[in-house]
Specification:
By secondary structure, the protein is of the alpha/beta class. The chain is 20% helix and 30% strand. The protein contains six helices and 14 strands. The strands form two sheets. A seven-stranded mixed beta sheet has the order 6-5-4-3-2-1-14, covered by helices on one side. It has a seven-stranded mixed beta sheet with strand order 7-8-9-10-11-12-13. Strand 2 (12-17) and strand 3 (20-24) form a beta hairpin. Helix 5 (175-185) packs parallel to helix 6 (205-214). The longest helix is centred in the last third of the chain and has 11 residues, at 175-185. The relative contact order is 0.16. Bound molecules: zinc ion (ZN).
């Protein structure tokens, strides 16, 4: 079974494999562009990049309802405990954990992280997934950084099948730096994220995808909220 990546809007993705469905950064009910509501989400595990509201707004409710284990940094894990979420796997940068369908490694990200109630949210992260036979990099919210070249290096002869990159600018990389990120990561498929949700992060993702294609860097796809892309 191929791996399916579904963008539900903003920076929220569902990664479906025959081994289970991973939900990344749940933000549904208050997201103006979301394709679905939190109550309708089905998942087997939840991965969190950092603590900002546009990445965790529906985290507690979905974790409690689905009983899906949450993978996140130490500080967010502690906070989840105070919110009554019990199935949590705390991690930190450089660490890997088994997740449904394969494994997830917590990678670095240049950003900040605090939880909606002001609690310190630890170090922000990205995710390098090896699931369902595909290698998928979810950058999270980040600036461009040169370690992306390392993250994209082939592992046992396999490069990245897909890279999910913020292009919204202002709070993360914009289109120019995201283009350079594709150059460093060398994924087979490049996918834009974290844009178009509100006017300050409006971007022309199709124009960005054309630039990626014209530079011969990757197969850039631009799903609309709710649309899926098949990988592998
Ligand atoms: Zn964000």
């Amino acid at each position: 079974m191929p791996v399916t990546l579904t963008w539900t809007g903003h920076a929220t993705w569902l990664v479906e494999t025959s081994g289970g469905t991973l939900l990344v950064d749940p933000f549904f009910d208050e997201c103006p562009t979301s394709s679905m509501k939190a109550k309708d989400v089905r998942c087997d595990a939840i991965l969190v990049t950092h603590g900002h509201f546009d990445h965790v707004a529906d985290l507690v409710a979905i974790a409690k309802r689905t009983q899906a284990k949450v993978f996140c940094n130490w500080e967010i894990a502690q906070w989840l405990g105070t919110q009554g979420v019990e199935k949590v796997q705390p991690m930190n940068l450089g660490g890997s954990a088994a997740v449904p369908g394969g494994s997830a490694k917590m990678e670095m990200a240049w950003h900040s992280s605090s939880l909606p109630d002001g609690t310190y949210g630890g170090t922000p992260a990205g995710w390098l997934l090896d699931v369902g036979g595909a290698r998928i990099y979810v950058a999270g919210d980040t600036a461009l950084f040169s370690d992306m070249e390392r993250i994209g290096r082939p592992h046992e002869g396999r490069g990245l099948d897909a890279a999910i990159l913020p292009i919204g600018d202002l709070f993360t990389m914009g289109p120019d730096d995201a283009l350079e990120a594709v150059r460093l990561l060398r994924p087979r498929i490049a996918l834009p994220s974290h844009y178009g949700t509100w006017p300050p992060i409006a971007q022309d993702a199709d124009a960005w995808a054309r630039r990626v294609a014209e530079a011969g860097l990757a197969d850039a796809r631009v799903p609309t909220p709710g649309e899926s892309v098949t990988v592998g």
